[in-house]
């Protein structure tokens, strides 16, 4: 291999490496953008870790003492949560309409 062809081969390889680095950077950015909602939700959950653990402990203690009342309370809480979500969805659906 001559010196000139060797230099051209090195330049071609360096160009290929640079292209791969650019593609990898773009792929990493797309990955971060795609997983951002999950990361944000996880960070929010971790920030509420201590209060959630305390509430879970109190709920477990109550469940051990009064299992039926705790089950009823849990059902009511879930019903309330579902009603809130449905109300929010209904509000969003009707918000854009004019009367």
3D architecture notes:
- The radius of gyration is 28 Å and the shape is elongated.
- It is an all-alpha fold and 99 residues long.
- It is built from 3 helices and no strands.
Short characterization:
92% of the residues lie in helices and 0% in strands. It has helices at residues 3-47, 49-65, 67-95.
Outline the low-pLDDT stretches.
none
> Count of DSSP helices?
3
Whole-angstrom Rg: 28 Å
The largest β sheet comes out as: none
Q: Which range does the strand content fall in?
A: under 5%
Shape: elongated
Portion in helices: over 70%
* SS elements, strand count: 0
Order of helices and strands, N to C? HHH
What's the helix and strand layout?
Elements: H1 3-47, H2 49-65, H3 67-95
Helix pairs in contact: 2-3
List keywords for this structure.
mainly alpha, 92% helix, elongated
